[in-house]
Design goal:
448 residues, mainly alpha, Growth Hormone, Chain: A, 3 domains
Length: 448
């Protein structure tokens, strides 16, 4: 668990650290706006596109072997980021880091599901949620500290270099303690290369414009890619239905417990990434707060998100089954309370952080509850598929939430004087989305 969760922590830290390091990278490497955007979003894009493929690769070649390969690759890519002599090299290294992070992260849930059972698995999944929260907090705080320290005049480089010693320690742990891969009974598992090609194309068409569209002003190519993603996913469904060993099993997605559960997870996660993007604009441009204040405002959210993880695993199975819809409703209540306080004229930081803490607690309950529900709903045969699909739904929800709600907020706020009202209206929309996530979670739990 130390090896698996440690790798999850590193992969999550790397996302936040890149955001914090952006301004220093721009000045240190004379990076263009496009290059800087790719330093941040290239990692996310590669990670999201490759998760499902990497999970199936783990099933075909052994999850321990692929985890070690991914962790080793991530460590080397982090070293390349820290030593990058130019912005172009840094972009390539970041995309490589995202791809290798997907390879190691896609094996984590598989390892938990195959290696643990019952209440022990539920507790492990709870710690998984806590590690995600801790990674987000550490990425924000550690990145800022390392860059501010300016060790030997290296500015942003230690923010990526810190992954190297940590990666080497985790490699030793994984090599020493992860159980050996067991051969699958029956026919050998084969990687569906046709499915890999179609799925990768479909995800790129969906995720790339959502990641880059906001900064580019939504040019025609972004809408063309989004439109083309629809027939690409239809083609994927048709291709996979003919495969004996499909990359994405249509029979698994046809199960209401799984499909509605993944949709609920994507919707709930979309609200968090929407807040992550819009809160910084609201506080800094609308209220004139500093970047440090903006970063600290979300600490209550991410800290509260991690609380339910270790706790829910101790609850009886029936209570854990109700956690996902209940958590989404608490999330909705947090957004509604924030909207009400803003409309009443309360813009104090104390109220903001308290309400964000409630919303973060709700999302933590929903995330842990849904993860436990889905892993308990499928057999070990589908462990690899779920290990890829669940984080993919989370990442897809994140980029969709950032793009959709970010566009809504910017449309509502044309000058700083409209920030409070615009952010209040946005939170109403987020509350509605969270209620929809709760409704989908109810359907998923009932159709298990």
């Amino acid at each position: 668990m130390g090896a698996l969760l440690g790798a999850t922590f590193l992969g999550n830290v790397d996302v936040a650290i890149a955001n914090v390091a952006g301004p220093s990278i721009r000045s240190g490497l004379h990076a263009t706006g496009g290059q800087l955007e790719l330093v941040v979003s290239g990692y996310t894009l590669a990670f999201a596109v490759l998760l499902v493929t990497c999970a199936r690769l783990g099933q075909a070649r052994g999850y321990r072997r692929m985890f070690l390969a991914g962790l080793a690759g991530f460590t080397v890519a982090s070293l390349a980021c820290a030593l990058a002599p130019s912005a172009t090299i840094l972009v390539i290294a970041r995309i490589t880091a995202g791809a290798t992070a997907a390879l190691m992260s896609a094996q984590v849930l598989t390892g938990i599901q195959l290696g643990l059972g019952g209440r022990l698995r539920a507790r492990a999944l709870g710690w998984y949620s806590l590690v995600l929260s801790a990674g987000a907090v550490a990425g924000q705080s550690l990145g800022g500290l390392l860059i501010s320290a300016d060790v030997a005049g290296t500015t942003w480089r230690p923010a990526f270099g810190v992954n190297v010693p940590a990666g080497l320690v985790l490699l030793w742990l994984a090599w020493r303690y992860l159980p050996a891969d067991r051969r699958q009974p029956g026919a050998r598992v084969r990687l569906d290369l046709g499915g890999v090609a179609v799925l990768s194309a479909a995800l790129v068409l969906l995720v790339l414009p959502l990641v880059l569209g906001q900064g580019e002003g939504w040019p025609a190519w972004t809408w063309g890619c989004l439109a083309a993603s629809v027939p690409a996913f239809v083609l994927l469904w048709r291709v996979e239905r003919r495969q004996e060993q499909p990359l994405v099993d249509p029979r698994l997605l046809a199960r209401p417990a799984v499909s509605w559960g993944l949709a609920s997870q994507a919707a709930a996660t979309a609200t968090y990434f929407a807040v992550l993007f819009t809160l910084a604009l609201y506080l800094q441009q609308g209220l004139g707060k500093s970047a440090a204040y903006s970063g600290l405002a979300l600490v209550s959210w991410v800290a509260a998100f991690g609380i339910p993880g270790p706790v829910l695993g101790r609850f009886p199975a029936r209570a854990r089954a109700l956690a996902a819809p209940a958590g989404s409703l608490i999330l909705a209540a947090g957004f509604a309370a924030l909207a009400a306080s803003l409309l009443a004229g309360d813009t104090s930081g104390v109220t903001l952080m308290a309400v964000l803490g409630v919303a973060g607690l709700g999302l933590g309950i929903a995330f842990t509850g849904m993860l436990g529900h889905l892993t308990g709903s499928v057999s070990g045969e589908h462990a690899a598929a779920l290990s890829g699909l669940f984080p993919t739904a989370t990442r897809a929800g994140g980029v969709i939430g950032t793009a959709a709600f970010g566009t809504v907020y910017l449309a509502l706020v044309h000058h700083p004087g409209q920030a409070v009202h615009g952010f209040a209206v946005l939170n109403i929309a987020l509350a509605v989305t969270a209620v929809a996530a709760a409704a989908m979670a109810v359907v998923s739990v009932r159709r298990r």
